[in-house]
Every structure is written in C-alpha cells, then in structure tokens.
Amino acid sequence: MTMKKLYIRTFGCQMNEYDSQKMTDVLKHSHALELTDDALDADVLLINTCSIRE
C-alpha cells in the first residue's frame, strides 16, 4: 500500500517551527503519512501561520 504524502509549510517564529514539527509527528503516526518537500507531490497540505496580537 502506498503511503499518502504530507507537505508542511511554516511561517512565523521558532514556536511555529516547533508546532509544525509536533503536528508532523502526530500526523505521520496517526494517519501513516510520509513527509515530502514537494507540495505538488503531496496528498495533504498543512500551512502553519502566525498572527501577532497586541
């Protein structure tokens, strides 16, 4: 069975990088996803952004 592929793009601070890594770990294990560096090759796209509020 071919694994589905996950592409993740992170915008923001170091905390966003950490959050993206955690989400990647969870999704890889819970949904048997393989990480890819090519968005066009991915079955699942995850965009992690940040907004700064005062």
Provide a descriptive summary of the structure in words.
The structure is a single chain. The protein has 54 residues and is an alpha/beta fold. It has one domain. 31% of the residues lie in helices and 28% in strands. It contains 1 helix and 3 strands. The chain has one helix at 14-30, and strands at 4-10, 33-35, 44-48. It has a 3-stranded parallel sheet, with helices on one face. The model has no long low-confidence stretch (mean pLDDT 90).
Uncertain residue segments:
none
Total tally of structural domains = 1
The mean pLDDT is: 90
How many E strands?
A: 3
Placed side by side, the strands forming the largest sheet appear as 2-1-3
How would you briefly describe this protein structure?
This protein has 54 residues and is α/β, with parallel strands linked by helices. Helix content is 31%, strand content 28%.
